[in-house]
Design brief:
The complex is a heterodimer of chains A (about 210) and B (about 270). Chain A is of the alpha+beta class and about 210 residues long. Chain A contains three helices and nine strands, in the order E-H-E-E-E-E-H-E-E-E-E-H. In chain A, about 15% of the residues lie in helices and about 40% in strands. In chain A, strands 1-5-4-3-2-6-7-9 form an eight-stranded antiparallel barrel. Chain A is globular. Chain B has ten helices and no strands. In chain B, helix 1 runs antiparallel to helix 2. The chains are: A alpha+beta (about 210), B mainly alpha (about 270). The interface between A and B is large, with 77 and 75 residues. Chain B: Component of the Mediator complex.
Chain lengths: ~210, ~270
């Protein structure tokens, strides 16, 4: 008997059902040092990991309706590291009892031929950017403080221009669906960063215009 | 003469026992309070308990130093009989603490000197102390005092050191800008403010999908994402409405997506 095509294989891996809980905020460049200092104190005892990533966002347009989006990321500081492919679901922001934005999240490590593969599948790159900054951890919580830069010449990550005078601050936790208690922990952690940074549940659709 | 001494010894031991019993009782009640009433226990009452204990210990010390108390140091206790069997009388006498009078526990209970290791340590410490001359010791004491007072000063006046930082935060010098937050969130969510780049390079000419992409392909920024209205469009593409609380549905929609895409757009139609 022939194996079914990959596309109709049921997804059985446990990690597929993970949700990402997210709070976002920003900090001005001049207050960055204070924030890093505070995070160093609050987070697990480790030196913050610096990173520099190049993210490419790919669209796949169906016959009708809206395109399907995948995000491919590669490390610029570790050229040999695998690419990272990520699917993010529709964010759920409506539930007032939940303190964080929740969305479906699928993470996959990929080989370096990922862009060619996506192109062959019919995906097209919509936009790209470079993010560099620091990662902190506290238990399951991840804090990413990053500066976003736009790429002036497509594909050339050397030639960039920063997007704003602030760093993006994101507090996220990956948890199985339905574990809303993690949002409580996130909120209490976010409280400790005030008034330096206000981490909030931000509906991205409101930032569109 | 000997009888009188004996009587005296008996009397003093008896009073010692009763004093020790007092200490034991107050310790007992204090521990009980700590374990069972710690929620209601106030600091002054804890201090009262400590004061009581300290007073009782002082009384015992006074009693031992009293001239009428014969020197207990001169009394010798010899274990006459060791037995590995349980002794009910002994257990009752010691409130079940010492049920057996055996070779294992006797050395511990009748010990008059510290453990050999402790004795060794003590000896080391005293030789160490003797080695340092009084002048050096004095100097060390002064350095330590200075360090302590410096530390205390720092702890008592934290404002001086942190003034610069906290003032910057408090005095209307914001550390973040909500507009920047929105711009950055927009940028990571759908590339708002990022230049659209569609490198033609990797796309082979004559690719079936290419024409459609160039002519009608919506960019991410043009796509409408369902806001609070519960509209289910956007990021997920042509996705069946994702029901809240049923995130397990999501993977299946991905699956159908890719499938339909491969059917309609893949250059090598199966």
């Amino acid at each position: 008997m022939e194996a079914p095509p990959v596309t109709v294989m049921p997804v059985t891996v446990g990690t597929i059902n993970m949700m990402e809980y997210l709070l976002q905020g920003s900090v001005l460049d001049q207050a960055l040092d204070s924030l890093l200092h505070r995070l160093r104190g609050l987070c697990d005892n480790m030196e913050p990991e610096p990173f520099m990533d190049h993210e490419l966002v790919y669209l796949l347009k169906g016959q009708q309706g809206n395109p399907f989006i995948l995000r491919a990321r590669r490390s610029l500081s570790h050229a040999t590291a695998p690419w990272h492919l990520r699917y993010l679901g529709q964010p759920e922001v409506g539930d007032k009892s939940r303190h964080a934005l929740v969305r479906n999240c699928v993470d996959v490590a990929a080989s370096h031929s990922l862009p060619e593969f996506l192109n062959e599948m019919g995906f097209r790159m919509d936009h790209e950017f470079v993010a560099n900054g620091h990662i902190f951890r506290k238990g399951a919580m991840k804090v990413v403080v990053s500066k976003l830069s736009r790429i002036l010449v497509p594909g050339n990550t050397e030639n960039t221009e920063r997007l704003s005078l602030s760093y993006l601050v994101e507090l996220s936790v990956l948890a199985p669906a339905g574990q809303d208690t993690v949002s409580e922990d996130m909120r209490s952690f976010a409280e400790q960063l005030k008034p330096l940074v206000h981490l909030e549940k931000i509906d991205p659709s409101k930032q569109r215009h | 003469m000997q009888q009188r001494e004996e009587k005296q010894l008996e009397a003093s031991v008896e009073s010692l026992i009763s004093r020790v019993a007092h200490v034991k009782n107050s310790l007992h009640s204090f521990i009980y309070k700590l374990e069972n009433e710690y929620e209601r226990l106030t600091w002054p009452s804890v201090l009262d308990n400590f004061a009581l204990l300290s007073g009782q210990l002082n009384t015992i010390n006074k009693l031992l130093r009293n001239e009428k108390t014969p020197s207990l140091r001169n009394q010798v206790i010899i274990p006459l009989l060791l037995s590995p069997d349980r002794d009910e009388d002994l257990a009752k006498l010691t409130e079940q603490r010492v049920p057996v009078f055996s070779h294992e526990i006797v050395p511990d209970h009748l010990r008059t000197k510290p453990d050999p290791e402790v004795e060794e340590q003590e000896k080391q410490l005293s030789t160490e102390a003797a080695r340092i001359g009084p002048e050096v010791a004095q100097k060390q004491i002064q350095t330590l005092n200075k360090l302590c007072s410096n530390l205390l000063e720092k702890l008592n006046n934290p404002r001086d050191d942190r003034d610069a930082e906290s003032a910057a935060i408090r005095q209307n010098k914001p550390s973040f800008n909500p507009a920047d937050t929105n711009a950055l969130v927009g940028a990571v969510a759908f590339g708002k403010g990022l230049s659209k780049c569609r490198p033609p390079g990797p796309v082979a000419p004559g690719h079936p999908g290419q024409g459609a992409m160039i002519s009608g392909g919506p960019t991410l920024q043009q796509v409408t994402i369902g806001g609070g209205s519960g509209q289910q469009a956007g990021m997920g593409g042509p996705v069946a409405p994702q029901q809240q609380g049923q995130p397990g549905k999501m993977p299946s929609s991905i699956k159908t997506n890719i499938k339909s895409a491969s059917g309609s757009m893949h250059p090598y139609n199966r």
